[in-house]
Amino acid sequence: MGKVIAKVKLANVADLVRAEDGTIQPQDVRRCEVEALADSGASLMCLPEDVVEQLGVKPFGSKRATLATGEERSLPIAGVVHIQIGDREAYQDCVVLPRGAQPLVGQLVMQEMDLVVDLSRDRLAPGHPDEEYPVIDLL
């Protein structure tokens, strides 16, 4: 089975709002770019603690999570993060993983962006390629 790695641009949503209202300069928005594994088994965006700190998003709670090993653990949730993959965007909270862990693009992010894992081409591809804009299934 192949792995799909996506370039993901991230930004602190609170900073984006402050830049929009003029409280901070646009260049002061905390941003970064990571290479994340597209993981349809993960629900949420998962970012290592060092990336969360770089973005300046604050943990606000925790969720019980089952890891790929089958181990259950309580993990912090932080946010909100602006997520951009290619021309697609989403705004979501993220699960905070240990420092240095592989960032993961979860199923909810892919659904919001109308992206699917295309293992034959090792990429994320539009779920509705004939549509001009992302399509979100609400049913």
How would you characterize this protein structure?
The chain has 139 residues and is an alpha+beta fold. It has a single domain (5-126), classed as Acid Proteases (Cathepsin D, subunit A, domain 1), CATH 2.40.70. The protein has helices at residues 13-20, 49-55, 107-113; strands at 5-12, 31-38, 45-48, 58-66, 72-85, 88-97, 104-105, 115-118, 123-126. The strands form 2 sheets. Strands 1, 2, 3, 4, 5, 6 and 7 form a 7-stranded mixed β-sheet that branches. Strands 8-9 form a two-stranded antiparallel ribbon.
| CATH topology (fold) name | Cathepsin D, subunit A, domain 1
Shape: globular
Q: Helical proportion?
A: 10-25%
The secondary-structure class comes to alpha+beta
Instruction: Describe the main β-sheet briefly.
Output: 7 strands, mixed
Question: What pattern of helices and strands is seen along the backbone?
Answer: EHEEHEEEEHEE
Mean pLDDT: 93
| Residue share in β-strands | over 45%
